[in-house]
Write a structure and sequence with these properties.
The protein has helices at residues 31-44, 60-75, 101-120, 138-152, 171-191, 199-211, 256-262, 268-276; strands spanning 3-10, 18-27, 80-87, 123-129, 158-165, 220-221, 227-232, 242-243. The chain is an alpha/beta fold. It has a single domain (3-276), classed as Ribonuclease H-like superfamily/Ribonuclease H (Nucleotidyltransferase, domain 5). It has a six-stranded mixed β-sheet. The chain is globular. The termini are far apart.
Amino acid sequence: MKRIAFADESGLDGLSSCYGIGVVSFDRELLDNFNGYFSSKLADHGVVGEAKWKKVTTSHGLINFALDALRSILRSHTASFDIIVVNTTQYRNWNSNLMTREDAFYRTFTLLLRHIAERSCLPAEIYIDNRSDSYAKRHEAMQTIGNYMLAQLASSGRLDRVEKVESRESVGVQVADLLTGAITAAHSRKLNSKFPLHKGKQLAIERLADMIGWDDLCYDTMPSDKINIWHFPKEYRAFPATLSLTWMREPRYVSAIDLMRRRQITPVVDSVARKSA
């Protein structure tokens, strides 16, 4: 038995007071089913090209794809979604003279991968978005350091492989991108009420939160093997609250009209009707 995981990050554009790294993981033997299911869902929702959080502003299909992604993880017997949300104001290494921000970012990334491998007690393959880093072998360093940490914990989990992939070629990374983007944006808005957030993205956050019985996605979670939102560092935990996952609601899908109303754009059909009245 082996785990496979796909990771992406959000909030590193300098506009936010936090960043998030999210990982969707499941049993390795289910990879073909995962790829087939989500590829078909992209087609069902009319998503053209790569599924990315930044494109949610103009695509109700992408919102519905994200809802299906969360629903599938919640209903799956093996899948999990883990995200570490890092408050950069409180994270000392982020503003340290002793390390670069790239070093600080990958330190938190390694902590998250270690946690996933330790929890499963299984070897894991991790595929991450192909970022442009000053050090090209960051993924190899994470594998080495993560396995050292696991050995120190006497854990039977290990990182068999950490590899960079192009997100446009990996539906797993695209799923991670959407969920990570939504949760990180919710946290960014909570930390800074003036954080610029498109109304289409607000709608996506509301519908995703509704599925787990929350009013927002800005919380951290009680220990959970299904949806784990981890606030880092420890000073950031339980802000504004720590919530448990009590139930799962069926997704309330979004229509093109819903998105246009939220964006305060008058649908063409309504405009034509008024002119002819």
